[in-house]
């Protein structure tokens, strides 16, 4: 037993010549990196996009980028407030300002039916009752569909081209101004007129055919419509081919007068035209004789409120109509107890220090070539009321 025990002990003390490998790298004493790095395979383009993304992140975190964002944000707020306030102002104007243009329709159709004029609340909107506007004078500038150029020149001279300008002129002089025109069956001309009304808002539209042979009827229709719309001391008929000084016209109408029924204008008398080939041919010349009675020139004249009230009370077919509107009105004035007031300042051939209306009398019944002449007159200091200073040195 003792011998066997010693043999086992001797055997356990013998070491093998080739020891077995360690069970792990830790047992082998291999040093590992303290912070191992992991790499992933990427395409070559991804590396470029990662670089741009990193740059963008650095840019977005910079103070300049934050300042730019702040500026853009404030600009957006300011723009939004401006747009909102503009819409509110536009809405306020639409609600609180009535259009100055007006369409007038008769209660009964037809020239021989009579009827008084009814006022319209806006352009092309039919007959709507409205309170008469109080003014010193209402000036109806008679115009036609072929006079677009004249209206353009007038709006560049003494006639304001905006609604605000018309209101300022009315406030300064007490005079209200509107272009007066009838209707036509030409759809394109009516469409062009409607566009002009919407742009300038300075018309009185009459429900009557617009043509030269109908001028006496148009004139009566104008006075009736104007009386229904305006509570004026005077009603002035003017053509669209004269140069006018509204301030001086206001002073002329505001004069003290002892007579309440006034027929104001440049009075004339002259031969009756019996030749059908002439422009002012009068078919009823046999009723007039060789010479016309005294009456005002057609380019501009005025009737006082009492006179126009008498015209409004008449039926359209109750008095005789002559071929020319100035003769027609003049003949009616003979039948009334009116005071014929002649004023030379209403028919001056050139601007003077006192001229009210300028036109090429007697060469033309208005200005010859009015589109150009209106602009030329408006360049003259004397037409504008400016006095050039003259030094003696």
From TrEMBL:
Transmembrane domains' residue ranges: 64-83
Pathway: Protein modification; protein glycosylation
MF (Gene Ontology): galactosyltransferase activity
Protein's UniProt keywords contain Transferase: yes
Annotated membrane topology: Single-pass type II membrane protein
Region (Disordered): 1-21
Protein name, as recorded: Hexosyltransferase
Species annotation: Anthurium amnicola
Lineage: Eukaryota, Viridiplantae, Streptophyta, Embryophyta, Tracheophyta
